[in-house]
Amino acid sequence: MTTPRVLHLWLQGRHIGEIERLRSGRPRLRFDPESLRHWGVGARPLSYSLPLTPRRVESPELEIYLDNLLPEGALRTQLEREHGVRPGDALGLLAHVGQECAGAVQITTGDELPVPRLRPLTPGEVDRIVLDLPTLTSPDGESITASLGGVQSKVLLTRDGDGWSWPTGGAPSSHLLKPEPADPRAAVPRIIELEHWAMRVAARAGQAVARTEIGRFGGRLTLVVERFDREDGERFHQEDAAQALGIRPGDKYEPAAGEGRLRRLATGPGAEAEDPAVFRDDLLRQVTFRLLVGDGDAHAKNYSLMNRDGSFSVAPAYDVAPVFHVDPRFGDFGMRVDGQRRLARLGREHLVAEAESWGVPRGRARDVVQDVAASVRSALESTADLEGFDLVARVRARVDQVADGT
């Protein structure tokens, strides 16, 4: 199908604007006058990077926001081929898969929302869908109308009682299923188990974190993640830090130079939180936890913000894995902390100095870091080790190092 020249943008079921493809191929967004009246000029209900304006928006931030709604890597390539979309054409692909995106955003080709529908799946169909990943296979040729950013292969499904359904027509999904990569040479071995282990530690340490469980589908080990931006079929809006800060997916790892991204989050969206001090504390807690467990993949797409009508809060942690302790490729933190990226060198004083740059008083920053360290140490006492990795001892040593101020 030829991509329509105009796509319709929806937020929480409200028509918020139209996205037009220019002759150059670039997108141009026009916000609805009604949206301007509802939220007000300058409000940021869609994205921190896209304040509402009566002017037409043709900024790089618009292109980046749309691009970050889509998956990366092999799954995106497959979707582009399946729908006859040229590589890199975000608008063209969103015309097909934009009906169910991260947060409360939907993108449609018509000026009305489609009728949502859940197609129940048999256990055998779920097994086949998971076993086929990274090739995304729909049941009975059902349309693939959902999209979620990231590079890991995954499928979005809706849990329906004890079973699963395929969401179509913009029906909200409730979970994402991420199987162990088919080619272990291309990923961290046992990454699914590693992530689930870290998420259990996070939950026991009192961190706000997405709920996970381990399942097997067709014998393939799979991480089942409950979406924190969905509840009882209702969408809650969120965006990742890359969208909020105008960072392209390919630039998600912070470079050695430039203004710190964590500081930009804390002083940008954080300043527009209902309580900026709570926002900064929550961000510091999540950064500290990721550092303590050795999450060497904590880049801009692995932090997210909840957005309630342009008031921001730090979203629960997700995609946390102690890869620093098991794979030498992950020696860097995905974001700079007080100018430092090397995980082996990062300690309490880096965290405190980073938080001070956000406006957190030094004493408060030290208290937050120490509190997270103590809660992780306690959580490790009740968390079984992952066979073959000695993670409890390694993370405990890291906690002691940070708590001692080194």
From TrEMBL:
<protein>
    <submittedName>
        <fullName>Kinase Y4mE</fullName>
    </submittedName>
</protein>
<dbReference type="GO" id="GO:0005829">
    <property type="term" value="C:cytosol"/>
</dbReference>
<dbReference type="InterPro" id="IPR052028">
    <property type="entry name" value="HipA_Ser/Thr_kinase"/>
</dbReference>
<dbReference type="GO" id="GO:0004674">
    <property type="term" value="F:protein serine/threonine kinase activity"/>
</dbReference>
<dbReference type="Pfam" id="PF13657">
    <property type="entry name" value="Couple_hipA"/>
</dbReference>
<keyword id="KW-0418">Kinase</keyword>
<dbReference type="InterPro" id="IPR012893">
    <property type="entry name" value="HipA-like_C"/>
</dbReference>
<keyword id="KW-0808">Transferase</keyword>
<feature type="domain" description="HipA N-terminal subdomain 1">
    <location>
        <begin position="7"/>
        <end position="107"/>
    </location>
</feature>
<dbReference type="Pfam" id="PF07804">
    <property type="entry name" value="HipA_C"/>
</dbReference>
<feature type="domain" description="HipA-like C-terminal">
    <location>
        <begin position="147"/>
        <end position="379"/>
    </location>
</feature>
<comment type="similarity">
    <text>Belongs to the HipA Ser/Thr kinase family.</text>
</comment>
<dbReference type="InterPro" id="IPR017508">
    <property type="entry name" value="HipA_N1"/>
</dbReference>
